[in-house]
Amino acid sequence: MDTLNSLADGFAIAITWQNIGLALLGCLLGTIMGALPGLGPSNGVAILIPLAFTLGLGATPSLILLTSVYYGAMYGGRISSILLNIPGDEPAMMTCLDGYPMAQKGMAGQALSISGIASFVGSFFATWGLIFLAPQLVKIALLFGPAEYFALFALAFATLGGVSSTNQAKSAFAAALGLGLAMIGVDTQTGVPRFTFGEVHLYDGIDFLVAIVGLFALSEVFIFLEHRHGNADASAKKVVIGRLTPPWSMIKRCTPTMLRTSFLGFLAGVLPGAGASLGSFISYSMEKKLVDKEGTFGTGDPRGVAAPEAGNNAAAGGALVPMLALGVPGSGTTAVLLAVLLSLNITPGPLLFSQNPDVVWGLIAALFIANFMLLALNIPMVGIFTRVLMVPPRILMPVVAMVSFVGIYGISGSTFDLLVMVGFGIGGWVLRKLDVPLVPIILGTLLGNAMESNLRRAITIDNGNWGTLIDSPLAIGLWSIAIIGFILPLIVGKVVKRGMRAGRDTAKDDENSLVD
Amino acid sequence: MSDRIFGAIGVLLAIAFALSALAIQESFLSDAVGPKAFPLIIAAVLAISSAFIALKPDASPKWPSLNRFVEIIAAAVSMILYAELLPVLGFIIATIFGAAYLTWRLGSSALESLIIGVGTSLGIYVIFHLVLGLALARGPLGF
Fold it and tell me: Which residues cross the membrane (chain A) (predicted)?
């Protein structure tokens, strides 16, 4: 009952004209960003953080805006999957399999609306899951000391590559690079400058927002320049929507699928190292094994559209659980949302629930509001969103670049930060070519300082004894999970990745999609 | 091959990082761990993972042809120029050039580029500055 009271308080916070307006704006922007190939949820949220920040919005309104964008992008990713067979972002990859064949059969409108409903069901249940699971996790997290936190951070890095990671050395490299970048600046505990090379601008450290926008948004611009991919993938005549509402029988047939995959997706989101891409992958595979008696999956079966969409949206909600309760994100986009919290001076983790309940519950209420808004927007307005696919990248990408510059310049007004951002853009492009994941770099720059101070605190408390790191059963447990999580992909990673690739060998290219 | 070079650069980076970590001046008032230990751990992880990348390389990615490379460098230079000139020229003028250059390189014709440049610049100015009140770079002309 306590939980429901808190939730009611949350609604009281979230329901103001300003917040509802922001949620609406976020949903619209998010859906558009999710729909555009090359601008996924991480990118979309990354570009908007500095803006929300410089506009001087308070903590709760900024969070409402940005999480609406996050949920919206998860909805929007399916639009280009279904209509063009190009996933708007990686989690929407599996939606291509049955969505595009449905569109070819002239059922694009029904595919879009059934996937919209599935997305709604997935995130709706995941938000309830978040409400009940997060406080339980907080109770466990309150037992954590600095040594356990250090182990938990290590666990987050070890599992971030996910089960589908193919090259763990590259994930480890990326994590170390991010942590190394976080070390730049004045050491908070002793006050000595580190790795600043006498450059005054570096004394404050590198702003993680600069790193995020550079790595995600600008590197995308470079990718488009490299391929000189300036024209829209959709042409006006190709997009035929057809009937917009699915018949009741179709919804009825998809309901058990949606419920099962919501649960599965939520679990995938909560567990470290899984994330939305895997959530949609296992949801699709499970449903295919379970209900595909006639072999219609892959040829335009509506259940094959509903399964991955419910799965990936539920995973998006599930991924918020460890992010809010522990302060340790499990996926790329939640890492970006962590950046939102940190730049608003809110430290997520168990104390968040007791110290800033208004932020937590306001956010959760906002998720419900955003979810209903998205459903309401998506069914009737899907025609407008499909128009967005016709905006050619040659117009879009300069706008993305310029908005990135505006946002970063707005924070500090310093040319130096802009130059660092361009550096990150180029670096991000090279690393993406080399298949190095960018998310661990972001997570490293975000968590580096917290990780170090927990390490130092733990050892100082125990008078310089490094053995304290593996002194408690809890810490040993976390370390074991970290090690297993790091090694497991070496064994099963290739199989899963092959499954995901084979699943969509018809889709054109995925070079432009970031990991959820 | 790309991965071997990348791994080698990574190892060098790790060594440089470790050396500059060792050069950190310790304060006389320090905790039990000090400011050097964690950077050294990071350097070790960086070195080991780079060595693995170099020893077990993935297949080389498809690198762009030379002129595409030049294209990317040129875009980076244009962005650097944009960053440097932003406070000098002011937001609107700098952004017209910046956006026009990028859209031109992505395949717009010369006239289109100019129109897109002006449109992007004025659009952002109106939405972010006039409507939302964000501070943008002011040039000598006040905008």
Answer: 20-39, 45-71, 111-134, 140-160, 172-188, 208-225, 263-284, 323-347, 359-379, 399-422, 434-452, 472-492
